[in-house]
Amino acid sequence: MELYAIRFSLIFQALFFACGEDSLDEISERAAGGAVKLCGYFEGTAHQARKYRDSRPFDRLSGLQKSVILALPETFSTSEGADIAEEEGMNRRTFERFLCDRRFFRQKKHGQYERV
Questions:
Q1: In the chain, where the domains are located
Q2: Among residues 8, 7, 28, which one has the least CA distance to residue 17?
Q3: Whole-structure pTM over 0.85, yes or no?
Q4: For 58-115, CATH number?
């Protein structure tokens, strides 16, 4: 990241020069400070992206979605699943959209699903 900070400092200094705010003789504290902040932003964003990438899909579900999945049997019909989802507090149409998520459900045949 140090190399990027140096590059960003040069870019900021060139921008300040282009705006007539500073010279190109040396890197100002303002340019260096901006570069450090920008590097911090990119490091934080990269950390969040890695954390999201490394998490399991089940961990990213809402509490309601998790409770519905855990309440469902291994194989179920659409109507059975919708009834269970409604008991857990999920709207029927929301459950039908949730069934389309292939990370959690696989359609065995028309109207029949299994948990993945």
A1: 2-54, 58-115
A2: 28
A3: no
A4: 1.10.10
